[in-house]
Amino acid sequence: MSTPQPPTQHPAPEWHAAPGSPYPTPTYTSPIPVVRTNLVHALASEWTKIKSVRSTMWTLGVFVLLVLGIGMLTGAVVAGSESDLAGESALSLGFFGLLLGSMCVITLGVLTTASEYGTGMIRTTMTACPSRGRVLAAKGIVFFLVAFVVTLVSATLVGLAHVTMLEGNGAVDPTGSEWLKGTVGVSLYVALLGLLSLAVGSIIRHSAGAITIMVGVLLAPLVIALFMFSESLKDVQQALFEYSIPNQMSIFYANSLSESGPSGWDPLWILLGVTAAALAAAFVLLEQRDV
Predict the structure, then answer these.
(1) pLDDT score of 84 more than 70
(2) Does pLDDT of 106 surpass 90?
(3) Positive or negative CA dihedral for 94, 97, 103, 108?
(4) Which of 241, 88, 31, 70 is nearest to 157 (CA)?
(5) What is this structure's pTM?
(6) Which candidate, 69, 74, 99, 144, has a CA 20 to 30 Å from the CA of 283?
(7) DSSP per-residue string spanning 200-254
(8) Is the dihedral of CA 166, 170, 171, 176 positive or negative?
(9) Angle, CA 64 vertex, CA 60 and CA 65 arms, to 5°
(10) Which DSSP state fits 261?
(11) 22-48, pLDDT tens digit by residue?
(12) How far apart are CA 63 and CA 11, in angstroms?
């Protein structure tokens, strides 16, 4: 038989007289160590949130399904039609799935911040971590890493499949630079697009409104440019073509819709600047407004 253990002894409160008072008052020192919270704790909290809610699984699941499904379907159709892809990179067909899939990343980015305002959970979050800037920074870091990794894996799998499937269609094997842009480059771009959505969600504080704005940013410039037939609007039409998000994404696959405008890694730096400005605005507004 095991020997019963004596009960844990907790320190008894000590009695001290408060300054200027003849009556002693009890003071108690907790045996539980008190740890000052920091960014690591906020990151752990946001990681627990993003992996626990159903919206993450649904949006990322649909994203992977779109990227892989449309990518494989496009590759199979082109390979079966015996189209001549002489001189074209085998990675170029991965653009179509990523363009549609980016809407899932936009949705998840908005929900990462705006959904807490809709449910009232933001009050609990700010009570647990009064440093508002730290909360937003943790949300941004966790979301960006999740979006980047999922996009990178999906884009790489589609790229490998296309290189194998289009081998007999005259497609050129991608160079190291093309692989880097078609996988890491476009994944950084999509993750930044989602991070921009996260900032807009924090600014708007309304999921449906922020998603609508971001879908408009994604598609509206290109759609508007397609219906500009007037000669006086040619310059505006050209600018909309060049700086529309679909065109900038296609640049990573060397399939720009225009012969001028951004090239190489320029789309990534442009979106980085826009996202940084949106995040700065989100930080300022978060500190000034009530939750």
Answers:
(1) no
(2) yes
(3) negative
(4) 70
(5) 0.84
(6) 99
(7) HHHHH--HHHHHHHHHHHHHHHHHHHHT---GGGHHHHHHHHHHSHHHHHHHTTT
(8) positive
(9) 115
(10) S
(11) 555 555 566 666 667 788 888 988 899
(12) 56
